[in-house]
Amino acid sequence: CEDCGKSLIGECKLHGPLIRAKDRVIPSRARLTLPHYLALRVLELRAGNQQILGVFAKKVIQKRTQFGPYVGQLSTKLTCYDESRLVLQVLKDGGKYFLDTPNEDCGNWMMFVRLARNQEEQTLVAYQHCGEVYFTTVKPIEPHTELKVWYAADYAKFMEASAVFIKEESDVSPLPPVAKEPVDPWICSSCGSTFATFALLESHQCIHKDRV
């Protein structure tokens, strides 16, 4: 303590604690790369103050707008996996590498884009070009709409993933199975004709009655 001239373990009981000045918080590399017409929104706050973020449009983004390339560390093993994000790989020098983003200083804003669960909410398509991954809009994106991505067909093959979208579970209960007609044929007692269903036999018997 400079006031009493003593070297103490912890705070000075006479003069109290020091006034702590904190450094200014600097946004991560990924956040600094966000285009001015896009915004990050906190969608969920999980344990440990972990934020689940989404990327939203602030103005209309035209169809066929290209973003990228995706920035990440080339790795043979994925160290950071998030089920809400696409797993991305590229072909470099004959080898297949993951684009790994263990933290926000290892990537750009594209690491925040969540995957599309169905075709209706997909706004971007991911594909590989010259060893880099790009996202391109597949339709105009309206303001306040979240950017969501899925693999292009050829890139899905490269990623050994399905080219179709993840189907959401339906809230509608399945209909009960329809009772099947007996396998044995139905035989007309008047003429001996056989029918696959009782309904056909019944309509046939009406003909006999009409004749009578």
Question: How would you sum up this structure, described in words?
Answer:
By secondary structure, this protein is of the alpha+beta class. The protein has a domain at 29-159: SET domain (Beta-clip-like, Beta Complex), CATH 2.170.270. The protein has three helices and twelve strands. The termini are far apart. Residues 166-183 have low confidence and may be disordered. It comes from Promerops cafer (Cape sugarbird). This is PRD15 protein. Keywords: Metal-binding, Transcription, Transcription regulation, Zinc, Zinc-finger. One of its GO terms (cellular component) is nucleus.
The secondary-structure class comes to: alpha+beta
Specify the CATH architecture of the domain at 29-159.
Answer: Beta Complex
- The main sheet orders its strands as 3-9-8-10-7
Number of helices: 3
CATH fold naming of the domain at 29-159: Beta-clip-like
Name of the CATH superfamily of the domain at 29-159: SET domain
- End-to-end Cα distance, whole Å, is 121 Å
Instruction: Work out the strand percent.
Output: 25-35%
- Mean pLDDT reading: 82
Global Rg: 32 Å
The largest pleated sheet is described as: 5 strands, mixed
Sum up the overall morphology in one term.
Answer: elongated
Low-confidence stretches: 166-183
Q: Report the order of strands and helices.
A: HEEEEEEEEEEHEEH
CATH top level label of the domain at 29-159? Mainly Beta
Count all strands and give the number: 12
Helix content: 10-25%
Domain C2H2-type: 186-212
GO molecular function: zinc ion binding
Organism: Promerops cafer (Cape sugarbird)
InterPro entries: SET_dom (IPR001214), SET_dom_sf (IPR046341), Zinc_finger (IPR050331), Znf_C2H2_type (IPR013087)
